[in-house]
């Protein structure tokens, strides 16, 4: 690994989120359940650690039960920037896929400086900035 990789702590939606991101970005999933790790602080089939490895990489897990003190985290004031990480056609497809079931907060469009960008909050509450230069 050569850079910053987001790690999401989700409220029981890690499997669905990681599968969705794999469908959006491509890549390979590695999923480990609480049961796989011998953990008893969450449902056996919950994700204790999951990875998406591919053109976009991230980690996610389901937060342990509240009694353990591990709350799900919803990032505030943070957005994941996908700036120039793929060709324009791919970036447009990623934006549209992230918007499905989510909310477009700033449509993907050409800006005064010549680049294209837009922002979307996906169905899991994660904010994305998608941008590219044509």
UniProtKB/TrEMBL annotation:
Recorded superkingdom: Bacteria
Record domain Glyoxalase/fosfomycin resistance/dioxygenase: where: 17-128
Pfam families, per database record: Glyoxalase
PANTHER family from the UniProt entry: PROTEIN YJDN (PTHR33990:SF1), PROTEIN YJDN-RELATED (PTHR33990)
Protein's name according to its UniProt entry: VOC family protein
Native species: Miniimonas arenae
